[in-house]
Amino acid sequence: MNPSKNQTTAIILRFNLLRFIALIFLLLLPFIVLPQKKNIVYTSGKGDPHKSFEEEFLSHKKCSEWWYVTGYLEDQNKQLYTFQFTLANINVKGIKIHMILISITDLQNGEHYYFQDHVSRGKHIVTTQNETTYGTLAGIKYAANDKSSFGKMNLSIKKDSLALDLQMEAQKSPVWHCDNGKLQMGILDDPKQYTYYFSLTNILAEGKLTLNGKELTVTGKAWFDKQGGPYTITNPRTNWEWFSFRFFDNEEIMLFYFPKDEHHDCTYIKENGTYERLQNFNVIPLDTITEPSTDYIFTYGWKVKIPGYKDENYTLKPKVDGQFNVFFYELIADVYNSKNEIVGYCYVELLPGARNKKLKNNLVFK
């Protein structure tokens, strides 16, 4: 039986409708977000009171936070280098910016290598239990060891003729700093001005460093921080001076100081991995330095007194001038005891708001 004229017309209309729908789908296809592997995993914790190290390791939706690794390395000729990796999520009034900050310093030649980048969407950002990565520029992959579920780390940095590939392994379990993992960020009368804070303070590192196309075999030690919270990141009173003592006897001291509020907090980590909070100490700057690109003033050289602990009196002498990376001024210093012996290194991080009245916030996204 032959189809009627009405049936034929209906078939043609349906065909044309399907063609129209297919055309619309093809036009919209580039804008359709298809299901994909979740690249940012959020914790249900708020940092205060903290949950497990594994929970607080993950991203927090309403916080500024950062995964931060610093360390020192020696090549086969005993030349010394430092490195810093920071993956940061910056939250300003509900707007979140993802940033990567990388620096490497050749202490023999006094040369700094630095780059940064930022994005407002997390498409190229990975923050999971197994990985913290910023696109193809830099990242860390994690696995468990007997000290932590993220105690093994493979760090990779690649930018033009600069590259760093390290295999790192924690020698101590993570520690909660300050008041059971809670650090008041200055401004003592505002309980919202805090961060949660934990570290792996003693990490062995080995791998390859490439500078200007020359590959070097390196070994050394590193320190990992995870920190963040709802504090007001744009308030200069929350800006700090941070000192991380890495003693050659395998003990560490973390010291936070907020000069504008005369507030400080400290953690002492023993060789066996046990730790305790310290609050009775003094930091006395010996000099200042003016950072030439910004005219910011930073303290430079320090005397640190920690009554009742280790040698009690230490002097920190910078090995080379530091480097400013739009958020902080960083350097490594020799740690001298009261006998004028070098007993360790101290990685120092200084934020401009700690000692300067005006900040140049536009520098951040240059």
Q: Report the CATH C-level class.
A: Mainly Beta
| Rounded mean pLDDT score | 90
Describe the global form.
Answer: globular
Which value, in Å, is the CA radius of gyration? 25 Å
Distance between the termini: 75 Å
Main sheet specs:
13 strands, antiparallel
Quaternary structure type = single chain
Structural class by secondary-structure content: mainly beta
Total beta-strand segments: 25
**Strand-residue fraction?**
over 45%
CATH architecture: Beta Barrel
Pick out its properties:
ten-stranded antiparallel β-sheet, mainly beta, 2 helices, 13-stranded antiparallel β-sheet, 366 residues, AttH-like fold
Question: What can you tell me about this protein's structure?
Answer:
- The chain is mainly beta.
- The protein has one domain: AttH-like domain (AttH-like fold), CATH 2.40.370.10.
- Helices cover 8% and strands 49% of the residues.
- The protein contains two helices and 25 strands.
- Strands 1, 2, 3, 4, 5, 6, 7, 8, 9, 10, 11, 12 and 13 form a 13-stranded antiparallel sheet that branches. Strands 14, 15, 16, 17, 18, 21, 22, 23, 24 and 25 form a ten-stranded antiparallel sheet that branches. A two-stranded antiparallel ribbon has the order 19-20.
- The chain is globular.
- Residues 31-36 have low confidence and may be disordered.
